[in-house]
Amino acid sequence: MITHTAPKYEYLPNEDIEKIHDTTMRVLEEFGIAFNHDQAVDILERAGCEVDRDALPAPLVKFPRGFIAEQIAKAPSEFTIYARNPANNIILGGNHMVLAPVYGPPNVQDLDKGRREATLEDYRNFVKLAQVVPDMHNAGGTVVEPNDEPQETRHLDMIYSLLTLSDKTFMGNVVSAENAQDTLEMASIVFGGREVLANKPVMISLVNVNSPRLYDTRMLDALLTYAQARQPLIITPFILAGAMSPVAVGGTLVQQNAEALAGIALTQLINPGTPVVYGSFLSNSDMQSGSPAFGTPESAAALFVSAQLARKYKLPFRSGGGLTSSKAPDGQAMWEATMTFWPTFLACTNFVLHAAGWLESGLVSSYEKFAMDVELVRMMQVFLAGIPLDEEGLALDAFEEIGPGGYFFGAAHTMRHFRDAFYRPIIADVQNYVRWEQKGAETSDVRANRVWKKWLNEYQKPPIDSAIEEALQEYAAHRKREIQAAIEA
To answer: In this model, does residue 474 exceed pLDDT 90?
Structure first.
């Protein structure tokens, strides 16, 4: 977990933030949000919202202006998620930043085997990488989609891997209510029961809005399940401007705000005080091809403003990551990732999903890109740490020792600090050309290939009680039999 001590960058003045807020309230009052879920609609209607059940594609809910503020005020501005290893507990909100790996890709890529469908082995590898790298504070959720396992039961293998291969916090499965219940049951085995989970949350789950202005059944099933169990939720509109929102960035921010606040309000109606995160996944479409574009200047600006909105509502904020449209871990991949990481860190994003490994617009989890993103993350942390201005930081004794025209390499001050004075790259090469050529003229992706393999080789499974691990295995096996029987019935 990172403690952010630098000033938070304010992209827009307060009057412009208020303009976005006021327009958001008009959208919620006049246009509404569609909820494709009878129970969710019933909850909102009983609370005083106006409901049109005959609207298409789903019942439309309109929110009274004061209603949203009343509900979101119930959500905590800061909360703790408890890990299997207490040293890995995380705090969301305030000046804390939590980083999690890539989420969702069906494919993986590395220099050895190329691009291919992800397997359970790949899934386990990425969980191990998140465990062994201290710069990842959460083990993730769907770090890849293990396509070699049956779709109906693969979530059990994924949850088991998260709970046994890592002792960091993790993300719940949101594919269905049943999958969410399985996640809760398996976590209960590890942490001591549902009551313990309700008082000390152990996971966080991602609920995406089916933008524009629609919550679908599956996401709402997961939202209700986790909110009832008082497990934290990230409510995130998934928006590519120009396709899923207006091309105007201002209008897109209004839409995102309306969608996020509506879902956050629902969580508080279900279970007041449930921890919730204001999520933003906002970029734009390429208006020539229609393809998603990442690492754009527009998305960077929108990230800053989204963070300002989350702070206005006193809610933790999720956004950012090493996003790119590139198909390889190359220059484009890293300049686009950097374009997203700068606002991510300067805005103090509390939960950073896709912090390592994202490639090809989220279709690929890349082993090499994972290592390269970690390099970027480490550099960002050094930047945020500031400049020491104590006696050693001002180095007067070095000026006293080394006169005009001198050389500081041999100074006593240098000897005291040369090991930790500057950031030391894990992948970047800073040798001269001759030495670089003599060592094989390796490009950064080749060096990254060696680094992630080293990390996997260094991985050690964190200790877990054998009885708990056996109980997890038994539960997963039992549920697989149940699911298979239901399929065959």
So the answer is: yes
pLDDT the model gives residue 489: 81
8-state DSSP, 399: H
**Smallest Cα–Cα separation from 303: which of 314, 289, 319, 315?**
319
| 30, 61 contact by CB (below 8 A) | no
According to DSSP, the residues that pair with 207 across neighbouring strands are 235
Give the integer Cα–Cα distance in Å for 36 and 44.
Answer: 12
Fold of domain 77-242+275-384 = TIM Barrel (3.20.20)
Element holding 365 (H helix, E strand) = strand 364-366
Q: Which amino acid is at 334?
A: M
Residue that is written with structure tokens 């401007």 in the block: 241
The closest alpha carbon to 269, from 35, 486, 481, 484, belongs to 35
Using an 8 Å Cβ cutoff, are 393 and 15 in contact?
no
Q: For the segment 346-358, what is each residue's pLDDT rounded down to a tens digit?
A: 999 999 999 999 9
Q: Which residue has the tokens 């062994």?
A: 132
pLDDT-derived band of residue 361, with 50, 70 and 90 as boundaries? Answer: very high
Judge whether 81 and 232 are in contact, CB under 8 Å: yes
Token readout for 204 is 């966080």
339's tokens:
């374009």
As a whole number of angstroms, the distance between CA 486 and CA 21 comes to 47
At a CB cut-off of 8 Å and minimum separation 6, what does 36 contact? 57, 58, 59, 214, 215, 216, 217, 220
Dihedral sign of CA atoms 126, 131, 133, 135 in order: positive
Q: Residues with Cβ < 8 Å from 161, sequence gap 6 or more? A: 120, 123, 124, 127
Question: Residue 462 carries which DSSP code?
Answer: P
pLDDT classification of 65: cutoffs 50, 70, 90: confident
Q: Report the alpha-carbon distance of residue 225 to residue 262 in Å, rounded.
A: 17
CB neighbour list of residue 211: distance below 8 Å, 6 or more residues apart: 237, 238, 239, 244, 245, 255, 256, 259
* Whether the Cβ atoms of residue 166 and residue 127 lie closer than 8 Å to each other: yes
- CA dist list (Å): 421 to 374, 415, 439, 482: 20, 10, 26, 58
Which residues in 62-90 are b (16+ Cβ under 10 Å) and which e?
A: bbeeebbeebbebbbeebbbbbbeeebbb
**Strands in 12-156 per DSSP E:** 33-35, 50-52, 60-62, 78-81, 90-93, 96-99, 107-110, 114-117
Q: Could you tell me the two tokens for 378?
A: 């480490």
